[in-house]
Amino acid sequence: MQTVVISGSRNSDGQTAKTADALLQGMGGKGEKIFLPQMNIERCRQCEDNGWGLCRKAGRCVIEDDFASVVDKIKNADAVVFATPVYFSSLSESIRTFLDRLRRICINEVTKDEIKGKLAVGICVAGGGGGGAPACIGDLEKVLQRCGFDVADLIPVRRQNLEMKLDVLKITGEWLAGLKK
Asked: Terminus-to-terminus CA distance in the chain, angstroms?
């Protein structure tokens, strides 16, 4: 199964990376990882006076940055994992910026059809007290559903239950790998 991991964390060895790695391990260990903070992805410009632009008309964004290449990887994948650290009970800024633009291009029927039904898993990893993970999962779920993904699972993780959740994520990965056989 061709899987792409979209990470909103800058730390390739941190808690968020560990959770994505555990899921990939369950899926057989293969998958491309993309760390959004290391890429050039600008925020939406709301191009026209009505707040829209090519996103609505053509299903693509006018901004020439790394966004389109990540979208192409999503379109070519069988499954997409969205993994984010939790900041202020919500998504990291980098994954929010990416998802804000993704949901806009998914307004276009052609683009939405290229993503519709694609398996997705969301992982939100909270440090500190960990209380923000459920709220973050809710934010992520809304956007993924709006884009047309088949949201297979949403997994909140706290620093305090990380080790247990790594086991859960491996099992989830095994389950996902079995869906596409």
From this structure: 8
Full domain range(s) for residue 43: 3-179
Distance of CA 170 to the CA centre of its chain: 18
Integer Cα distance of 106 and 146 in angstroms:
8
CB 21 within 8 A of CB 6: no
Strands 150-158 and 119-126, how do they pair?
parallel
Buried b (16+ CB within 10 A) or exposed e, 98-125: bbebbbbbbebeebbebbeebbbbbbbb
pTM score, whole prediction: 0.95
The 10s digit of each residue's pLDDT in 116-152 is 999 999 999 998 888 899 999 999 999 999 999 999 9
Asked whether the beta carbons of 127 and 103 are under 8 A apart, the reply is: no
Q: How confident is the model at residue 129, as a pLDDT?
A: 84
As for how many domains the chain has, the answer is 1
For residues 104 and 143, what is the distance between their CA atoms, to the nearest angstrom?
10
DSSP 16-72: HHHHHHHHHHHTTS--EEEEGGGS--PPP---STTS--HHHHHSS-S--SSHHHHHH
CA pair distance 50, 73, nearest whole angstrom: 30
Q: Which strand (E) or helix (H) includes residue 168?
A: helix 162-179
CATH code of the domain containing 119: 3.40.50.360
